[in-house]
Predict the 3D structure of the following.
Amino acid sequence: MPSPTPPSPPPPIALTPGPLATRLTDLYHTALKKTLSGCSYANFAACFPTPAKHRPEILRGLWMQVVGKIEAKSREEFEGILGERGVVEGLNALEGVVQGGRGRRGMGRERGEDVGIAPHLLPPNELYNAHISPQLVPIQGELEERLHSTRARNEELVMLIQRQREEVEELVRGLEAVVGDLDGANGVLGPLVGSVREEMIVKSAYEERRV
């Protein structure tokens, strides 16, 4: 049986710097010391050759005062920024979240649960999709609504075109019937018209002879 995972340490008190806040402070102090080391007495004295030659002790005291004031002022401003922005509280809260997640992950493993994959181990595509999916959901809903409306309008247009086509076909059938009736009438009246025409010609010729 695997040994139980030790409980996670309680999160640090809000005003007490935790590991992250302490690391940030140490990093700043290290960077400050490295920066100030570039302002050595040799470099400082090179800017004031006459005092450095005749009164080096005074110039060295002045250099120590300048460097000390710069360091003190930088530390004071850094502490002020930490307090004004609530950096310590924020980093402590982040540390609490991380510790809580580690604790729950450890407990899940002990119970044999699938704890999943840590976000930083996920492939880029999954991280990208997880990031943009909440933004795409409303857009997808709007596009689906527009597509549904377009389909409904298209169905209405199809039904209208179908009705118009049926009306045109009915009109064509009516015209074909009229044309057929006219053809039938022409067949019936054709001989009669020829006979009447011949009678008119004979009558006209008879009248001309009488005159």
Summary: The mean pLDDT is 80. The chain is about 80% helix and 0% strand. The helical segments are 19-37, 41-46, 49-54, 56-85, 87-110, 124-210. Residues 168 and 189 are 31 Å apart (CA to CA).
